[in-house]
Amino acid sequence: MNHPENSILIIFGASGDLTKRKLIPALYSLEVQNLLPNNFFVFGASRTELSDTEFRDNMADALNEFSKDEDLSKKDQFLKRLYYQSVQANDSSSYKPLINRLEKLENEKEMKSNLIFYLSTPPSLYDVIPDDLAKVKLNDESNGWKRLIIEKPFGYDYESAKKLNEKLSKNWNENQIYRIDHYLGKETVQNLLVTRFSNGIFEPLWNRNFVHHVEITSAEDIGVEKRGGYYDNSGALRDMVQNHLLQMVGLIAMEPPSSMDSNSIRNEIVKVFQSLSKFKDDDIAKNVIRGQYLESKIKGKKVKGYREEEGVDPNSKTETFAALKFYIENWRWGGVPFYIRTGKRLPTRVTEAVIHFKPTPHSLFSQENECDSCNQLIIRIQPDEGILLKFGMKLPGAGFNVKNVNMDFHYADLSVQRIPTAYERLLLDAMNGDSTLFARVDAVMNAWSFLNPVLEAWKNDHTIPVYGYPAGTWGPESADDLIEEKNMTWRYPCKNLAEDGIYCEL
Q: What is the CATH number of domain 184-482?
């Protein structure tokens, strides 16, 4: 990791959960690793009236509760970097005290005005705050760079994303805007690039000649918790597919970049999104499945159905499960189906990508079914992060009976290596001006363009069903029909990377 320039991070929405649970613990981890510059400071900014001392006390409690670092010996040193200023996000005149304090600190420390603005706020403020910052010249780079980090969701659909970008681009250049997707900060997601492009055995096979299909699963075992009001206006397609999972598709399917710089990598991801086969109206009901979890018992404990959750419309059609089948129309992937599924209240929490290779052209050995001769490369994002390769081996004894076995690597085996959290990596990259792992506007717009027909169909075509599935199961049975070939279905992953099966230990 590079050592960044001196800078100040201003977190809007600093009294919220994200700051306490993720941002401050991530920054403290960078402190412990001596990766923060000498003159690096954080200003919390929100409507709440707090003194610097009160804010530091709150963040000290957050570190005690949420920090992943056992070493808290640098906590007092880190807390001295923190300041707080009350700001009314939609009132540019209230920014004056913040500006005065920033200028005073910069003068005291003889720093350039290198500023990062982190919008940890409701999406309704994503265009308001940047506009207010521009009104008070806090986007001016004449005395230091200015960067804007925006949390997802970037828009609600294609049109809203387009309008948001138009508003931002009036005062901010694209190279100043960092659209954060914490999935891209995960070490195992980045390892997709290394697995592909540093190993000569994989890249020659990474195409339609050898790959039968690609499958991505992102499952959660929890429901919507206390976020029912938010989630009911979002749903699985917007919350997970449009950003996290399509970004994983981009990394899996992209062409080798000319170099490992930000623009080269993001150019190739955009080309994948431009090649996604667009859904036609009559395809959507067949190739996109949506579902909602129903009341059920998990380990003997009754859990609510989605429509009984707090803040959810009793007649809601918002999906808590989505599964898609689609194609990438280019020479590398022509004819290879890609399958994505994500959902809440599934049997376990797991995210992984599976490359299913084609079976041997002529089966010579005794196996239970044709699918047993299909090699699989499984890239596990969470939990039990690692990589697993499934291949056939002869069972001991007479004859040539074959069984699939696993060859696996677990990140946990690297006992001397520390795996950074996603926000550690992304915050440090933003400080260094490295936008590789942040979504570029053309990628965001192409992703919305791909999914917009689905959103429109779900909104306007009331004949498209919302399938129910009991909480604790792998979603609607109709999702299994997406994979039409005989003896082939989804992989049913367990917490342990090397185990799979419908009945996993929760």
A: 3.30.360.10
Region 309-338: mean pLDDT is 94
Distance CA 488, CA 486 (A): 5
Q: What is the pLDDT of residue 407?
A: 76
Task: Give the model confidence (pLDDT) of 137-149 as tens digits.
Answer: 999 999 999 999 9
Kindly tell me the burial class for residue 82, based on how many C-beta atoms sit within 10 Å of its own C-beta (0-12, 13-18, 19 or more).
buried
Instruction: Indicate the average pLDDT of the chain.
Output: 88
User: CA 256, CA 480: separation in Å to the nearest integer?
Assistant: 32
Angstrom CA distances, 471 to 226, 232, 312, 400, 438, stand at 17, 17, 16, 42, 34
Report the topology of domain 7-151. Rossmann fold (3.40.50)
25 in helix, strand or coil?
helix
Above 90 in pLDDT, residue 420?
Answer: no
Give the position of tokens 């279905």.
489
**String of DSSP letters for 166-187:** HHHHTT--GGGEEE--GGGGSH
Closest CA to 242 of 150, 155, 121: 155
Q: Find the mean pLDDT for residues 330-351.
A: 94
Give the pLDDT mean for 365-383: 70
Provide the residue ranges of all domains of the chain, joining segments of one domain with +: 7-151, 184-482
Q: 385 vs 296, which has greater pLDDT?
A: 296
Q: What value does the mean pLDDT take over residues 34-47?
A: 92
Q: Does the pLDDT at position 396 exceed 90?
A: no
Instruction: Give CA separation, 426 vs 17, 180, 245, 357, 438, in Å.
Output: 18, 8, 18, 33, 8
Q: CA–CA separation, 173 vs 194, rounded Å?
A: 30
pLDDT of amino acid 394 = 64
Element (H, E) at 99: helix 96-109
Strands 376-382 and 386-394: antiparallel
Reference 199, options 42, 389, 428; nearest CA is 389
Look at residues 178, 389, 337 and name the one whose alpha carbon lies nearest to residue 266: 178
Annotated active-site residue 182? The verdict is: no
Which listed residue (182, 212, 213, 244) is catalytic?
244
CA angle 392, 394, 398 (to 5 degrees): 155
Is 325 strand, coil or helix? strand
Which parts of 344-487 are beta strand (E)? 350-357, 376-382, 386-394, 402-410, 467-470
The two structure tokens encoding residue 468: 């129910």
